[in-house]
């Protein structure tokens, strides 16, 4: 019983490593937004909408990792 509990905690910890990738992805998206707006300020509105889409997609992968972690902890 203790071994299964330890394996659940280890698996949940490994699953949350994906949140690191989501954070890095969001940082890359917004650094590209700042770079693009500084190069061409007239495209600010279009670039911002693309950045929000990119942030949402990157955040979704992090939420999937978090969901797997919670499933491992509370459902199995």
Summarize the structure in short.
By secondary structure, the chain is an all-alpha fold.
Walk me through what this model shows:
The chain has 76 residues and is an all-alpha fold. The protein has a single domain, classed as F1F0 ATP synthase subunit C (F1FO ATP Synthase). It contains three helices and no strands. The chain is rod-shaped, with a radius of gyration of 18 Å.
How many domain units? 1
Calculate the terminal CA-CA distance, rounded to whole Å. 13 Å
Output the helix-strand order: HHH
Globally, the shape reads rod-shaped
| Average of pLDDT | 93
Count the strands? 0
Radius of gyration: 18 Å
Low-confidence stretches: none
Q: Indicate the percent of residues in helices.
A: over 70%
Structural class: mainly alpha
Largest sheet: none
Identify the CATH homologous superfamily.
F1F0 ATP synthase subunit C
Q: Which CATH top level class fits?
A: Mainly Alpha
**Total helical segments:** 3
Q: Which fold name corresponds to the CATH topology?
A: F1FO ATP Synthase
Strand residues, percent? under 5%
CATH architecture: Up-down Bundle
Question: Features of this protein?
Answer:
single chain; 76 residues; mainly alpha; F1FO ATP Synthase; 3 helices; rod-shaped
